[in-house]
Amino acid sequence: MKKHLVSTMMLAAFGLAGCAATGSNTNAGDTMGTANEIGMNVFKAAIDNQCRSQIEKQPAWRIASAAMTDMQEEAIQDKVCSCVSEQAPQQVTIVELGNAAIDPTYRTQLVTRVVAKSLQSCYSSIVQS
User: Fold this and answer.
1) What is the pLDDT of residues 55-103, one digit of tens each?
2) Residue (of 21, 47, 15, 45) closest to 34 by Cα position
3) Distances from the Cα of 126 to the Cαs of 6, 53, 109, in angstroms?
4) Higher-confidence position of 123 and 107
5) Which of 80, 110, 115, 125 is the most exposed place for a label (fewest CB within 10 A)?
6) What pLDDT is attached to residue 112?
7) Domain parsing of the chain, residue ranges
């Protein structure tokens, strides 16, 4: 299901990027900037989705969430996964993003790697504050 969601989001991004490229915009730099922004937004959405999935598997989260209301759990997940999503662009190159756009297996591996790098530090910083 998650792979299907990510694939659908990537296809939508390429479709939108294609629309941006064929519109009345004659500045190629603006078009590439728009396509990159759309691609990065799709990447961040995939990161957020993976983050929420991984946070549920963390033993510390299971213990801490037992004493939380659903609203508290969601608020903390929002903060942690927002942090992870914001750190994501700093951890990937444009080449990696290009490869992720083409290869679904690579995309899954890249998203998993980026989330793994950031999740613990973001979780710790949010919980401690």
Assistant:
1) 999 888 889 889 999 999 999 999 999 999 988 888 888 899 888 888 8
2) 21
3) 27, 17, 25
4) 107
5) 125
6) 93
7) 2-128
Share of the chain above pLDDT 70, in %: 72
State both tokens at 87.
Answer: 């750190």
Is residue 18 packed enough to be buried (19+ CB in 10 Å), middle (13-18) or exposed (0-12)?
Answer: exposed
Tokens read off for 77: 């997940």
Burial of 13 (0-12, 13-18, 19+ CB in 10 A): buried
* Mean pLDDT over each residue of the chain, to the nearest integer: 78
